[in-house]
Specification:
The complex is a heterodimer.
Chain A lengths: L3 H21 L7 H23 L9 H17 L5 H23 L4 H21 L9 E2 L15 H24 L1 H11 L1 H6 L4 H27 L1 E2 L6 H14 L6 H19 L4 H14 L4 H6 L18
Antiparallel strand pairs in A: 1-2
Helix pairs in contact in A: 1-6, 2-6, 2-9, 2-10, 2-11, 3-4, 3-5, 3-9, 4-5, 4-9, 6-7, 6-9, 7-9, 10-11
Chain B lengths: L2 H32 L6 H19 L2 H27 L4 H23 L15 E5 L2 E4 H23 L1 H11 L1 H6 L4 H23 L9 H16 L4 H29 L2 H26 L10
Antiparallel strand pairs in B: 1-2
Helix pairs in contact in B: 1-5, 1-6, 1-8, 1-9, 1-10, 2-3, 2-4, 2-8, 2-9, 3-8, 5-6, 6-8, 9-10, 9-11, 10-11
The chains are: A mainly alpha, B mainly alpha.
Amino acid sequence: MKSFSSRYIGLGLLFVLLAAFPLVAPLFGLDFYVGFVRRVLVVALAAASLNFILGFGGMVALGHAGFIGMGAYTVVALSDAGVMSAWVMWPLAMLIAGIVAALIGTVALRTRGVYFIMTTLAFAQMLYFVVVSLRRYGGDDGYTLMSRPTLLPGLDLGNESNFYWVVLVIVTLALWWLQRATQARFGHALMGIRDNETRMRALGYPVFRLQLAAFTIAGAIAGLAGALLAGGNGFVSPATMHWTQSATLLVMVVIGGLGRSWGGPVGAVVWLVLEEVLKQQTEHWHMPLGLLLIAVALWAPKGLAALYKRRLPLTPALSPEGRGSKA
Amino acid sequence: MSGILVLEQLLNGLGYGLMLFLLAAGLTLVFGIMDVLNLAHGSLFMSGAYVAAEAHTRTGSFTAAIVIAVAVTVVVALLLEVLLMRRLYTRDHLAQVLATFGVILVADDIVKMAWGPSPVMAATPAALSGPIELVEGLPYPAYRLVILAGGLLVALALYLLVNHTRIGMRVRAGASDRPMAELMGVRVGRIFNGVFLLGAALAALAGALMGPIVAVQVGMGEAILIPALVVLVIGGIGSVRGAFVAALLVGVVDTIGRAFVPMLLRATLPPATAADLGPLFAEVAMYALMVVVLIFRPSGLFSARA
């Protein structure tokens, strides 16, 4: 079994490789893929935030794209009002997505099972139709942002590489923070609720408040992802918030591995890379993806991260064999 | 606003509601009995619409088209059940969502390969293309009346089957308490196969009937799936009566949101605001209804498992 520190070396190496990508890519004529990798990073963050409530919290929410959209449309609204500072845009995107998530969670968490799935979906659909009706922000056609946000004087985010690095740093920090949260008492309480809600309630845990807090955090981080997507693409449309986008995020998390620390990112990378590759091969790229989904559901229900995890338990709380071996 | 207009819109709402019921009935029974969430139910609806449109063009007979559409879709559903659904019974909802979402992707691509990406024309049968004067001053499309009558007839037949026959009793028993029903000697697995195929037939019928009034296109299954799921949740899972009440409720509320709220807004608000808010209310009405119902009854109006 690998030691604790070798894991950090591996992650450090991954970070260095990702950071070097915009410098190396032009040498191989891969400039186009800088934007692609940036998008994958952001979607990986969104998937990780969904995994936080879905995998660790056991809340099957089918409206996550709604929060991504709230973040993206916060950026649209600010940009329309002439505010371009990322220091305003990104925190405000998180705040608004978080508030919306808290409100939705307050209602949705009263229900269980499929009723919860459907309530979260219903709210996301309502948000979708709200932005469709906002003609000031382009309605159905979407909204083209004037320019990239500004972060620091002298740092031009219009430059593809610069924006990539900023995104890389933010995504890394956010993923690290999420990982910390799942391993803290809060995360363990959340997993406890997932596994046995009645018992946790009997032990005196404020189940509803903990779930609501997790739901709000996940919403806020999805909002940040939405803001980063909007800034990067320079274009936002209601399609970002369509329910199939929520379903795709769900699919990514399940493919990657529910409740695995790398489940969200792994799923996002696998899904988006496959999509990109298949799109270049065939017009009918949905079918192989669909078949893959069916195969994963039938034969790898715990996701791809689980195949790897079998030999290397990372979070002691999730695997009995990992308990106590990490000290 | 005249009474005639209200009546006309109400009829439209009922027609839409009845079609939703045809979809939701299969969905709610499958979900109630086997606890299987089948997102691909909308794809069966799409199959019904496409096959009917194609068969109608080829045979020239609308009745034949409906029969062929239902038959073909039932065969497709049989394949789906044998190849996939069987393996999903014991899995959690998430695996079911994943696999049946995969089926949606595959089904959409198959349809795209067979009929191309652009919408297909589904003709209204010639004999029914004219209007019929229902009451004085209300000419109503004959085809929509057929949909209303057909939907009501099927709903009634289904109601009798589920509530007043021995088979229906077993179905209800399986839906409300599966282990107990099995202990009492009901072969729930076999009942389920029948219900799954019946659900597919109803979905195909809805698709074939709706074809001429909606666009027959790739993705039409997903578009109708969500309202059908809303009906399922409002009605309470596993209850056919709940699905019926909820479907009519959603049909009418949706129509009110689409036809009357914008009218009301135009009368009370500045034109620009009304033009912005009108479509919003139209789309959101159904979801708002669901949320309100769930706030007061977290497991739907008539949940079979309440």
